[in-house]
Predict the structure.
Amino acid sequence: MGLFKKNPVFCILCAVGVLAFVGGTALVVMESGKLATSKRQVESADSQIKGLLYATPAPTSENVQAAQKNAEELNAKLQSMRDDLQRGSRLTVSSDGTRVMAGLQRYMSSHRRRVANHKNSDGVKAEIVVPNGFAFGFEKYASETKISDDAAIIPQLDKQRQILRYILDQLIKSDPAGIQVVEREVLEQSATADGGFKINPAISARVPGAIDTLAFRVTFTGYTPSLRKFLNKLAEFELPLVVRSVEVDRPTVSAAGAKKKGKKAASNIDDIFSVFGGASSSADKPAETKSAANKTPVISDTESSFTVTLEFIEIILPSNSEENSN
């Protein structure tokens, strides 16, 4: 204190100098830290610039525009794929029980008229044979006007009607000889009392929460071209219908019947040749000719019964907002 009292100016100057030194040192340390950070940022930016310069393709304005156009095309393709996968959801269904019931009645009466007045591809009337009182898959509602009270069932019934209408349209265009059975997967509580069925889970594509399906089965009679034409029309995929199985039931011909047909054919041939003075009795024919005639197969074109099991597939896709959140 004595030194301060004797030389106050000197002591004050010394104190100020010490404080200035400490402050300057602190500023130097702080600025050196900022300088080091700035150097790192410059080095990082320089590295990024070099990476962009050597990038393929280079980030020129032309390449950026091309990338944006490519992204737009990919988004359009994605939307198209979503639309194809959700094609079944395009069906407009009603939840009004009265309207759905009226639609079912029109569906049954319309197809009864169509099969009765059907004309084949040559324009010749060729009635398609169906059982009496046939309801084309909706036997439960053929004689009653009360529909299910379940609000979830009504739109599904309307959807089944629209799908079956499409299936039967393709089948009728294929010129079958007859339609024996039309079955839909029963949704009501009355199980198989409606003439419906349950598809085998082993062949079904149904996945809860991902894929919804509705199964159908039709049995019709006709010839192989009708089956081929029917399957080809379904393959056009206007609706997402997948053929799960095809069963063919061909009528059996007994050996006695085949032998009888063979004899009748041989007799007809003899009668034809007898007109021209040929021998009509087997005694006048060489032995080898008789042997060859006995071995000649007789092929007859017969109707077959075809049972086709179909599955209508509807993909459950997440919404765009859900995809973006993920």
